[in-house]
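Technical note accompanying the year-one report. For the benefit of new consortium partners, we illustrate the data format agreed upon in the data management plan: each record pairs a sequence with a structure-token string. No post-processing was applied to the example shown here.
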Amino acid sequence: MKRSFFVLAAVLVLSAVLLSACGGGGDSASTRPEPPSTYASLTNPVAGKAEAADAGKTVYETNCSSCHGATGKGDGPAGAALDPKPGDLGKAVVEASDAYLFWRISDGGGMDPFNSSMPAWKGILSETDIWNVITYMQTNFK
């Protein structure tokens, strides 16, 4: 009887570990950290503006599509070699705040909890470029 209980307990623990490992990982809304206070109150000043989305498309195609793909699904040719894989931007723009998107693009993913190859674009792209690319993503990847 004790052996049966031990086997059952071991199976339950192992099952719980395996199921938690299959939880999808990535940057989901439930695991997304809050942006740092320097970003927390930011909102997109050009949200919904067609000219911003057009300018953002150029920024996206030049800097982002090689990893995130033409439609933002994380399936770009350069992204295939990355671990972790680039995120699905369509999911991010639906789930994440403007502040979060600006933070991730600005500071990249080379820090906990992300530990990804996402470069920090702050200092390379202007704030206007970052807001334009966010507007492009919000307009086209939902």
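Partners are asked to follow this layout when depositing records. The longest helix spans residues 2-21.
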